[in-house]
Amino acid sequence: MLSTLSITPDVGDAFLRAAEAAHQVGSPQQLFVWLRLHFYRFLPHDLALLRVDMGRQGGWQTHVLNCVPLPKALEAELSDSTSRLWAALTEVWSSAGEHAVCVSLREPPLAALAPALQLSESGFDHALVHALRGLGGHGEEVLVAFLRQGADDLPAESARCALDLWMPYLRFVMSRVYGVSPGAADGRPRGRGDGHGAKPLTDRELQVLAAVREAKANAQIAVMLGISPLTVKNHLRSIQKKLGARNRAHAVAEAMSRRLIN
Questions:
Q1: N vs C: which end of the chain shows fewer Cβ within 10 Å?
Q2: Separation between Cα atoms, residue 190 and residue 193, nearest integer Å
């Protein structure tokens, strides 16, 4: 899916700035600002719905970040983690192969739900939805939905691809803001050998990945580490396989979400 996302030098610079700024986010207010100043460029939205699994002790937490006014009753319904809307969004995401998916609020399975109807009446037509599994792959750890007011047309394919790419960063930022470690749906923090069964990265692989995060090309990394460009390429292939990443940018995002690199 990410193959349709065009990364120009300008977009690449914006991506790196946004990723860097993600490390400074530590409160709900800062998260709101980060979404508006950085994430918005990749996925325009007026309403963000966030659902986080706080682990065995905390249960589900839901958060509504909106820059347009919502009826109080609707905001309360969206903030209720037991609302049927959240179950429907999870179902849609799962049915889409666990990729970012755009769903109409006016069609099944959402059309019959009161919150979806109220959102439609408030000028929202579609929701772009994504989630990530928790440790062991059982149940979603985080679930997000982004909605744009007054947008009747389906988002471009690039928007769905962007959310696929950004999802590990969103999990990372949400973990900082809401106090749950990425991958800690069962209360345990994730380390180099995580609950997805991935092999730990070697020190050399971490060095390569850190250089990729700084937007270094393979040839530059080879000079920095005193190895050949082909060796760098092989390291990147190994890194992507271990992290389940689709490309080098996704590998950096996934490594940051797991706190393998800073």
A1: C
A2: 7
Query: Treating both helix axes as pointing N-terminal to C-terminal, what angle do 229-243 and 203-213 enclose, rounded to 10 degrees?
Result: 100
Cβ neighbours for 37, distance < 8 A, ≥ 6 positions apart: 21
Say how far apart CA 215 and CA 209 lie, in whole Å. 10
Q: Residue 4: its pLDDT value, please?
A: 53
Q: How far apart are CA 90 and CA 87, in angstroms?
A: 5
Cβ(118)–Cβ(137) under 8 Å? no
Determine the Cα angle at 88 with ends 80 and 44, to 5°.
Answer: 80
CA distance 140 to 133: 4
* Residue-range domains of the chain with CATH: 2-178 (3.30.450.80), 203-257 (1.10.10.10)
Using CA atoms, how far apart are residues 212 and 40, in angstroms rounded to an integer?
A: 24
- CA–CA dist 181, 32 (Å, integer): 20
For residue 151 the two structure tokens come to: 């947008």
Pairing of β 126-133 and β 101-104 = antiparallel
Please give the radius of gyration of the chain, using alpha carbons only, rounded to the nearest integer.
19
List pLDDT tens digits, range 207-252.
999 899 888 899 999 999 999 999 999 999 999 888 888 788 888 8
